[in-house]
Amino acid sequence: MRTPAETAPNPTAAATGGVPFRVVVVGSGPSGCYTAQALRKGQPDIEIAVLDSLPTPFGLVRYGIAPDHQGAKAVSRQFERVFAQPGVEFVGNVSVGTDVGFASLAENFHAVVLATGLGADRRLDIDQDPDVPIVGAGDLIRLLNSDPDAGLRHRPDGPGSLGSEVVVLGTGNVAVDVVRLLAKSGPDLIGSDIDDDALRALAPAPVRTIHVLGRCPSHLAKWDTSMVRELAQVAGVRVSVDGTPLLDEPAASPRTTVDVRFERVPASIRRHDGRVRVTTHRAGDTGTVDHLDADSVVTALGFGPSAAQLARFGGLDAPNVFRVGGPRTGRLGNLAENRKLAADTARDVLAFLCGREQRHRAGLDGLREHLPASVVGFEEWRRIDDAEIRRARPDRCRTKFTTRAELLAAATGSGALSSIPSAATGPTATQEK
Ligand SMILES: Cc1cc2nc3c(=O)[nH]c(=O)nc-3n(C[C@H](O)[C@H](O)[C@H](O)COP(=O)(O)OP(=O)(O)OC[C@H]3O[C@@H](n4cnc5c(N)ncnc54)[C@H](O)[C@@H]3O)c2cc1C
Fold first, then answer.
1. Which one, out of 142, 316, 379, 411, has a CA that is 20 to 30 A from the CA of 235?
2. How many whole angstroms separate alpha carbon 335 and alpha carbon 164?
3. Which residue from 56, 79, 116 has its CB within 8 A of the most atoms of ligand 1, so it is best to mutate?
4. What CA–CA distance (Å, rounded) separates 276 from 291?
């Protein structure tokens, strides 16, 4: 990781009474990266440190956007150009709230931007047996994206099979991502970076039937029509909405049937004869009850702050603390929305910095003694990136490391890279203390 002293001098200093502006962004997902990009655009010499608790940058671009949507994931190349600039630092594997306290950030930087996203799948607040297999869509897709921290990965008995009949609750784009990934077969995943081991664990045999239930009427569904069209065009998949097939010529003998029903309000999820029974009633008509028996349930009901995020950042309020993305709006949003929010936030930050006299702040140098030994800088991230691309399995664009230990070994050019015959791993990194 470069030190601030190694970066270019800060001509902003002349315009600000000799004080270089130093901003820390917590979270290197799209909101954090777009904010850094917009701050630099507004004030080209501002110094920015972007901290992330993960050893890898880009948040849900890496661990959320579906592994078969590489076009959307390619936004990371744009973000890499932000970190390639002198004066913008990626500081990975540093969790704010545990590794470094918020007070240290406030002390060492002129402004703190919280871009920590919304880390938790929203839960279903209905009557449910405690041991029924319910999985959050965000967690499921994190697993398929090789997130080392995915909750499913750390279950005592592993992720476990979802079975051949699955109920998905929710009709947004994330629900469609889940259905598509579970319905696809091998050839459909060529060129993706899906975690094949995780997919095999979740779906050791084809998922035959996926019931998708939405509370709202179909015209209020949050999914994009293009997403549903893409799903309906997957070979061997038949999609029907409220009983009507989506394509005029549905797959003759489908491998997977997707049955979408709107205006079904979940009332309970219970164990029933060794399976899971989802009971719903019709919207506006609690008297009409339907039962669906399946092997597992996936909830795709949006996202909220995790308990840790609430505890660490919930009550923070000071003139130099800014929020962007989910912490600002309560919604995860998409890339375009978060880009706009980031531009607004950057404008607020610059107005704050320029609107009052600023005293000198040490920036990353002042933080150094608080940082853990295993910090991952941008050059170390590039090593991880290279190694994952080089170790890609056949038909995959990359094969990600699935544990923090592997990621850190790849970051230093040791350990995990030894299994790659032609790897030119570069010099061992000197990690920051
Ligand atoms: C399954 C799925 C598919 C999606 N597909 C698309 C798509 O195709 N197109 C699209 O436009 N959008 C898509 N989105 C939405 C998109 O991913 C989000 O809009 C975007 O990632 C939100 O960015 P963010 O930076 O606010 O949050 P995040 O991407 O979640 O980034 C937050 C970052 O903050 C870090 N962090 C959190 N707490 C701390 C802490 N205490 N200390 C340090 N770091 C911390 C996290 O590690 C993370 O890296 C998808 C989302 C999901 C879940």
1. 142
2. 33
3. 116
4. 10
The answer to whether residue 74 scores a pLDDT higher than 90 is yes
Q: Which of 60, 79, 143, 168 to mutate to test the pocket of ligand 1 (most atoms within 8 A of CB)?
A: 60
Query: What would the pLDDT profile of 256-279 be if each residue is shown by its tens digit?
Result: 999 999 999 999 999 999 999 999
- Ligand 1 neighbourhood includes 174 CB (under 6 angstroms): yes
| Domain locations along the chain | 4-119+305-375, 122-302
CA distances from 178 to 17, 21, 92, 162, 398 (A): 53, 43, 28, 12, 20
Question: Considering the entire predicted model, what is its pTM?
Answer: 0.92
| Average pLDDT value for residue range 31-40 | 98
Atom 12 in ligand 1: residue holding the nearest Cα = 334
- Name which residue sits closest to atom 37 of ligand 1, judged by CA: 116
Give 209-261 pLDDT, tens digit per residue. 999 999 999 999 999 999 999 999 999 999 999 999 999 876 689 999 999 99
> Is the CB of residue 288 below 6 angstroms from any atom belonging to ligand 1?
no
Among candidates 112, 94, 106, which has minimal Cα distance to 366? 106
Instruction: Report the separation in Å between the CA atom of 208 and the middle of ligand 1, taken as the mean of its atom positions.
Output: 31
Query: Are the C-beta atoms of residues 261 and 214 closer than 8 Å to each other?
Result: yes
Q: How far is the CA of 212 from the centre of ligand 1 (A)?
A: 24
- Distance (angstroms) between ligand 1 centre and the Cα of 26 equals 12
| Least confidently predicted of 176-190, 192-206, 333-347, 405-419 | 405-419
Q: Which atom of ligand 1 sits closest to the CA of residue 326? A: 26
Give tens-digit pLDDT for 7-25. 434 445 444 566 789 999 9
Ligand 1 within 6 A of CB of 28: yes
Q: CATH code for 4-119+305-375?
A: 3.40.50.720
Task: Count Cα atoms within 13 angstroms, Cβ side, for 396.
Answer: 18
Q: Is the CB of 216 under 6 A from ligand 1?
A: no
Q: Give burial (CB, 10 Å; 0-12/13-18/19+) of 281.
A: middle
Q: What are phi and psi of 378, to 5 degrees?
A: -70, -35
The pairing of beta strand 22-26 with beta strand 111-114: parallel
CATH of 122-302 among 3.90.360.10, 3.40.30.10, 3.50.50.60, 1.10.1740.10 = 3.50.50.60
